[in-house]
């Protein structure tokens, strides 16, 4: 597996034409950057639903494409919903589940996150499972809360015998949309505990822990020892910023190889 996993959620910031233009720039970047070509970094991109088919075509072979949400059900009279079955049918590989904005703006509960995680895994999708504490805590307490959320989210899938990779995106709620991410020492202290737990999930081999919450260029080098990558939002809206983060990944990976 690549050493670093770098994801970008475009949320609802871009229109379709802007999404297409951004993805074309990222595709060119990914095809030529040594971090991707040499297998040091894996990319995934999560656009809005309407842009998924175009983005799948543009990023074919250079990045995994995903959806920002999915329904708990697989089919039926659920106006406005999109099922995991359809997301997988289109060719997506990942789907975001349980983001703090879904919880805060749309009232998603632990029960809903649990059902959506199960829906993702039963259709062979990798859930990008967003976890994090609502208010700043001591790192050990924040990690315990994240582990509780992980175990709760996986409960139905585990009981049904689902298997697959899970990407845990640690996003402290208080850092989302902030000018700066959480402090590197705090991120490392929380993620070290969470990653130890995630690597012990025998039913979900190959799972990873990445950091989101105002993640930016320069952060990867400060936290790389305790995270598997970054989950980026607005700080990746300029392809040059993603280029800079890939430079960091390449430098870290090659330095590690030399060591």
From TrEMBL:
EC nos:
5.3.1.1
Pathway assignment: Carbohydrate degradation; glycolysis; D-glyceraldehyde 3-phosphate from glycerone phosphate: step 1/1; Carbohydrate biosynthesis; gluconeogenesis
Reaction catalyzed: D-glyceraldehyde 3-phosphate = dihydroxyacetone phosphate
Q: Which UniProt keywords are given for this protein, alphabetically ordered?
A: Cytoplasm, Gluconeogenesis, Glycolysis, Isomerase
**Gene Ontology terms for molecular function:** isomerase activity
CDD domains, per database record:
TIM
Localization (cell): Cytoplasm
Say which domain of life the source belongs to: Bacteria
Family that this chain belongs to: Belongs to the triosephosphate isomerase family.
Record text on subunit structure and interactions: Homodimer.
- Tell me what this protein is called: Triosephosphate isomerase
Q: Which organism is it from?
A: Sinomonas terricola
């Amino acid at each position: 597996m690549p050493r670093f996993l770098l994801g970008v959620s475009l949320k609802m910031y871009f229109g379709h034409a802007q999404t297409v233009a951004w993805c074309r720039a990222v595709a060119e970047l990914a095809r030529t950057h040594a971090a991707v070509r040499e297998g040091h970094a894996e990319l995934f991109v999560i656009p809005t639903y309407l842009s998924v088919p175009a983005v799948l075509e543009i990023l074919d072979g250079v990045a995994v494409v995903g959806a920002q949400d999915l329904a708990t059900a697989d089919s039926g009279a659920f106006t406005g919903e999109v099922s995991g079955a359809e997301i997988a049918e289109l060719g997506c590989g990942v789907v975001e589940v349980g983001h703090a904005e879904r919880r805060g703006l749309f009232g998603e509960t632990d029960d809903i996150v649990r059902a959506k995680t199960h829906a993702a895994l039963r259709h062979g999708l990798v859930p990008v499972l967003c976890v994090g504490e609502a208010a700043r805590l001591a790192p050990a307490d924040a990690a315990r809360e994240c582990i509780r959320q992980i175990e709760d989210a996986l409960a139905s899938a585990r009981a049904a015998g689902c298997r697959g990779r899970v990407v845990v995106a640690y996003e402290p709620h208080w850092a989302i949309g902030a000018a700066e991410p959480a402090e590197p020492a705090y991120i490392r202290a929380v993620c070290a505990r969470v990653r130890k737990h995630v690597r012990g999930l025998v039913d979900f081999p190959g799972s990873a822990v990445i950091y989101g919450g105002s993640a930016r260029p320069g952060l990867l080098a400060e936290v790389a020892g305790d995270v598997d990558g970054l989950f980026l939002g607005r700080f990746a809206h300029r392809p040059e910023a993603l280029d800079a983060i890939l430079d960091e990944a390449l430098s870290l990976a090659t330095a590690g190889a030399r060591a």
